[in-house]
Amino acid sequence: FLRPLAAAASRFGILPSTAAAAVSLLTQQPVQQVALFSASLQATQQPVMDRSLYTVPTDAPVTFLACGPAFEKLSQAEKAYAYHLYRASWIGGLICLHQTSAESPGLFLVLQSVFRRQTPEQLRASCKAGVSDADWDAFLMYATQVLGNLGNYKSFGDTKILPDLSEEALDKIITASEAHASSERVRVAWQRVRAAASSLTERNRQLGLGTAGITSYFSDNCDESDAKLAQAFLDSRQISAYNTRLFKSAEGGSYRIVQASAESSVVAEPTDFTDEASGRSGKFSVERGDYRELMSLALPHLRNAEAAALNANQAEMLRRYAASFAGGSIDEHKAGSRAWIRDKGPAVETYMGFIESYRDPFGVRGEFESFVAVVNKEQSAKFNALVSNAEKFLPLLPWPAAYEKDKFLQPDFTALEIVTFANSGVPLGINIPNYDDIRQSEGFKNVSLGNVLSSSFSDPKTTFLVAEDKDIWIRRIAQSFEVQVGLHELLGHGSGKLFKQDSDGKFNFDPSSVVDLVTGKPVASWYKVGETWDGKFSNLASAFEECRAECVGVYLCDVPEVLAVFGHPDKAEADEVIYVNWLCMARAGVASLEMYSPENGGTWRQAHSRARFAILRALLEAGQGLVTIDEITGEDGKPDLTVRLDRSKISSVAKPAIGEFLKRLQSFKSTCSVEAGRAFFESYSTVDAYFQRLRDIVIARRKPRRVFIQANLSMDSSGSVSIVEYSDGPAEMIRSFRDRFSDEDWGRIEEALWQQWERDLPLMKLA
Hints:
Layout: H1 2-11, H2 16-27, H3 35-44, E1 62-64, H4 68-72, H5 76-93, H6 95-98, H7 104-117, H8 120-126, H9 133-148, H10 167-175, H11 178-182, H12 184-198, H13 224-237, E2 244-248, E3 254-260, E4 265-274, E5 281-290, H14 292-307, H15 312-327, H16 330-342, E6 348-356, E7 367-376, H17 377-388, H18 390-393, E8 412-422, E9 429-432, H19 436-441, E10 445-449, H20 450-456, H21 467-492, H22 533-537, H23 541-556, H24 560-565, H25 571-591, E11 596-597, E12 603-604, H26 607-622, E13 627-633, E14 639-645, H27 650-670, H28 674-685, H29 689-700, E15 707-709, E16 712-715, E17 721-724, H30 730-740, H31 743-760
Parallel strand pairs: 1-15, 3-5, 8-10
Antiparallel strand pairs: 2-3, 4-5, 6-7, 7-8, 9-10, 11-12, 13-14, 16-17
Helix pairs in contact: 1-3, 2-3, 5-14, 7-12, 9-30, 10-12, 14-15, 14-31, 15-16, 21-23, 21-25, 23-26, 23-27, 25-26, 26-27, 26-28, 27-28
Main location: cytoplasm
Subcellular location: Cytoplasm
Active site: 489
């Protein structure tokens, strides 16, 4: 009785003491005996949050990622290889649900079960009474976003996705379904997640660690100090964190590090450990078997892909991946990655595993990712030309040769038409593998996702530009972004050396002659045995590295030979591409404020956004009128912004400023100068009162991010493989996920998701 009253009183702003006195009079009880009411009221008096920031409008773009023409050019052998990879990819991709939030697996189970039994049209007929058309459309968009992001948090920005309808309306739709009526498991899952789906609190509105947000990479009782202690333990044992999660005991002090694998076993019995740097201690055990049911289901498809492999490198790659997924060995995955690097110019490209660490609040654990794509040979020719000339372009970067790799290992750089990207989000380009030791000495690959790029710029309208810039933006944004992606991936992520000392005490640089580019003194720090870039810079590493790569892109985009590679030898055309690229970076720095949360001392929710904002600050710091941000009144009478870049000052002001900024970033990274690097980067990515005011305008002008519907593949009894394509829109996203798993497969997948969810729930917090 008292708790609902407390919530109602809070809604109307009634003070706890006043409400307690009122309840005392109503109930004829002394004020001190209604302490429960007062405490409940205190608990509900939180800052009012704008729920519209977390919902997605029903007109948000839901776009089919077309790849049919490219796929049909493959031979039947190539299609069969792609098919088995596709099957393994989507089973593995469901791990992302368990890496997002406690409720994500349950929401996915409910939605899949509902739409496997009824089409959207049939379900609409079941709940016609009492559910408005607006609520129905909002439900379809919510389902689309949960499916498209593989969880109820946005893949770009890490904020919660709320249904834009009431909890009661959402409940009416789900409970009207045949799945809810016929399945006890669906009823239990919905009962568990119903409130969590619509809940919005200061903590659960975004991903984070401890009080800063929620995460499934850690048990709910972990905070950053636990993450640091665990990382120190992992470093001491030379164990990679990429495929792990960390669970702390309820009483504290004891930790389980669990590695992803099909097999379950104990790697290390509970061991006492003390971190000498912090003085903190804990008891650590290491186990295998996280996501074991899903990993087991993916393995047969990996082995089928190995049997269908088109060359020896692909067969070895898949054999090693299977060994890694079976036993949890990152060394096996590294071996598979080496074979993948050797597989030059394949017709079907793929990579899978625990790859990017963007969503781990501590920045070291990889989200599962797997893609299958067809190589676009015509587009790839541009990138191959860039690779061939890379050794000419690297010396143009603003650091001496000692800071560059001893030998540039020419990577494969291909343009891909994505068939499958099983992950929470689909990027525009990738530079992998992320293992420092392989990248430094053996190489890497770059890929540009051509059909993702073309779909992303199919509607090039944008905000925060003056009228005279809009025409050139529309004309050149796709071309400038192609140049930026190429430079970012190849010469951004692919450049620079990490200074290291091996177990024999030998250095990979000359400590007596190499000078720190920031201090001007001899280099005083480097990476010791077992230390990695991600491990040392932890939650700063992704944003720092993305910033470095973005800087390389704009810094080199005016090189005539680079522009010629991308088909822009004409000076007038090239100048437009250069201008739009720099303008895009400045504008992106302002637009990135959408991904900044001022709460809890201020946090950035997206690495690329933080990177671009830091670059904007560096450009503004250059002064001389290079970049101008004006606050204006828009055509709708509401506050708006414009970003201007003085085109005449790109060479004289912008490039020298970014060159100096980039040189410092590289120095901090090469020399493992963690404290100095953190202080430097944080000074440029701090959002002060002025930018917080601009953020309010950016938030008001934000546009929903595009989600992609992906094709499916099918194989008939004769072994012939065909592609299944879709139209745009929420109903098609739902249909694509329903088609993705056969009834037989879904029975096993549902059980695998359920078993993992049952193990996770006692460790996580349903919002």
